[in-house]
Amino acid sequence: MIVLQMEKRVEPMRVLVTGGTGLVGRAIEHVVREEGGAREGEEWIFVSSKDANLMDAKETRGLFEKRRPSHVIHLAAMVGGLFRNMRENLDFWRNNIHINDNILQTAHEMGVAKVVSCLSTCIFPDKTTYPIDETMIHNGPPHNSNFGYSYAKRMIDVQNRAYFQQYGRRFTAVIPTNVFGPHDNFNVADGHVLPGLIHKAYVAHKEGTPLQVWGSGTPRRQFIYSLDLARLFIWVLREYDEIDPIILSVGEEDEVSIKEAAECVVDALGFKGQVVFDTTKADGQFKKTASNAKLRRYLPDFKFTPFPQAVKETCDWFVANYKTARK
Ligand code: NAP
Ligand code: GDP
């Protein structure tokens, strides 16, 4: 008997990255283009709101019809730090619900093989035990400061499970902690803590004024460098086969206080002035310590960039790109 071994033809991926011009999108683009993250024959397409307003269903459909992706990394979102979240809960809810529903439903209608969306550890319940893991996302209300963003993001997980249950679609999500790196949003009023501190310390250094750290400095955060996150995102797209989400985070032992994070920025920029804590400003959720045990089961040897090195690289990028950086 002759057994003919048919070689399975695997079509190269055509990956559409929504939010491709943002902090995480630019990091994925860097890894794909500069670190050999792409494989032969693959096509990677990075899009922004200029290509299509994803809050609009017709524009979303038009983008998919034009680009015909086989895979989607879905990053596009209304994103902001604690203080923007506190001011604009309704917009965070509505804009993100529309964007996410348009992307997932269009990917379903167009037969996309896999979508990897992005949740966040700031959607976790406020009152909880620690460390928080992937099974606990829906176990109680999120912190009141960012309930609009949090509930909208949680619904991605609900939709992923429902698309799988009804249609067998392989849509999943990652849960990164607080991300920072080159191309972040350094706007002090709207952005996250690290880009905010870097921008404020840069200006304070030039003007000889104190660095104002908002809040008490005691809350604790796990930070992830955008380039580490990008490498993990590409692994998830290629290898991670679950519908349930996966936390992408440094270990619990690498959680730092906001005060320690500010000290790192001060060191990286060589800031010699006074550092003051403005306790009239909100602290937000005290901590959201996440377990990376699931990630470690899959990738026991993955090396995260040490936090001081990643902060230094981000500060250097900001100084070198001050004129054009988002701020
Ligand atoms: P970002 O730097 O603010 O970038 C947002 C991206 O989304 C930009 O490319 C933007 O396009 C695009 N976008 C926004 N609204 C859009 C719309 N209506 N239509 C089409 N595109 C739109 O955000 P990021 O920090 O890279 O975040 C990426 C993902 O990671 C988000 O899903 C976010 O929720 C998640 N995440 C972020 C963090 C963090 O600390 N930054 C932590 C956890 C999870 P334009 O450039 O044209 O505006
Ligand atoms: P979160 O991690 O989702 O809460 O969001 P952020 O990245 O905005 O971090 C908020 C924490 O950093 C709170 O404890 C703030 O009080 C503190 N913080 C200190 N200085 C700043 C700043 O300049 N900008 C922001 N966004 N937060 C700051």
UniProtKB/TrEMBL annotation:
Q: What is this protein called?
A: GDP-L-fucose synthase
The pathway it acts in is: Nucleotide-sugar biosynthesis; GDP-L-fucose biosynthesis via de novo pathway; GDP-L-fucose from GDP-alpha-D-mannose: step 2/2
Quick check: keyword Oxidoreductase in the entry?
A: yes
Q: What is its EC number?
A: 1.1.1.271
Keywords tagged on the record: Isomerase, NADP, Oxidoreductase
Question: What's an example GO BP annotation here?
Answer: 'de novo' GDP-L-fucose biosynthetic process
Q: Which domain of life is it from?
A: Eukaryota
Against PANTHER family, the record matches this protein to: GDP-L-FUCOSE SYNTHASE (PTHR43238:SF1)
For this UniProt entry, the molecular function terms from Gene Ontology, in alphabetical order, are:
GDP-L-fucose synthase activity; isomerase activity
What positions does the domain NAD-dependent epimerase/dehydratase occupy? 15-250
At the top of the EC hierarchy, this enzyme's class is oxidoreductase
The gene name reads: GFUS
Question: What is the source species?
Answer: Scleropages formosus
The answer to whether UniProt assigns keyword Isomerase to this entry is: yes
Query: Can you tell me which family this protein belongs to?
Result: Belongs to the NAD(P)-dependent epimerase/dehydratase family. Fucose synthase subfamily.
Function, as annotated: Catalyzes the two-step NADP-dependent conversion of GDP-4-dehydro-6-deoxy-D-mannose to GDP-fucose, involving an epimerase and a reductase reaction.
